Amino acid sequence: MKKIFRVDDRLIHGQVIEGWIKYYKIKNVFIVNDRVFKDPIQTMIYKSIVPKGVDIKIFSVDEFLKFFPSSKVSDFLVLFESVEDLIKVEPLIKEDIDLNIGCVANREHKYQISDTVFLDLNEIKELCYLRERYPITVRKLPWETSIEIMNFIKLLEEKV
């Protein structure tokens, strides 16, 4: 039984389906993203690509904050498009939830953390703060060696 909050700006794609949903036999997938929540075409696309037997729900951040505390699901993968959205749901994070940063694309003023994760200084700061209370890993796939967020404090100190 797995409980995962994952930041991946691509949301659902092959690595998520094969590497996370199938690997952990996840039965509940939640996309938490205001933009996708408001877009019926993207909602339809995401709902059509998850494997059979997987229940997928799409929430705005505010709706997820209301839904999740009363949810009875025991295994889940919650997908966020951004670190910012993950931080917004911080009150929902519990010690038994794995926090994973999988893919955040390169943009201006971002620093390379791994081959797929690029963060700006504010995102690094927010994750370092969150890391004081919960383990956070950076990895594309569950069987890969992860990069610990604790190492980011040095990067943050060097750039500030």
How would you explain this protein's 3D organization?
- This protein has 160 residues and is an alpha/beta fold.
- It starts with a strand and ends with a helix.
- A seven-stranded mixed beta sheet has the order 3-2-4-1-5-8-9, sandwiched between helices. A two-stranded antiparallel sheet has the order 6-7.
- Helix 6 packs across helix 7.
- A hairpin with an 8-residue loop joins strand 8 and strand 9.
- Helix content is 34%, strand content 22%.
- It contains seven helices and nine strands, in the order E-H-E-H-H-E-H-E-H-E-E-E-H-E-E-H.
What would the keywords be for this entry?
160 residues, alpha/beta, seven-stranded mixed β-sheet, two-stranded antiparallel ribbon, globular
Task: Please render the helix and strand layout as text.
Blueprint: E1 3-8, H1 14-22, E2 28-32, H2 34-37, H3 40-49, E3 55-59, H4 61-67, E4 76-80, H5 83-88, E5 98-103, E6 111-112, E7 118-119, H6 121-131, E8 136-138, E9 147-148, H7 152-159
Parallel strand pairs: 1-4, 1-5, 2-3, 2-4, 5-8
Antiparallel strand pairs: 6-7, 8-9
Helix pairs in contact: 6-7
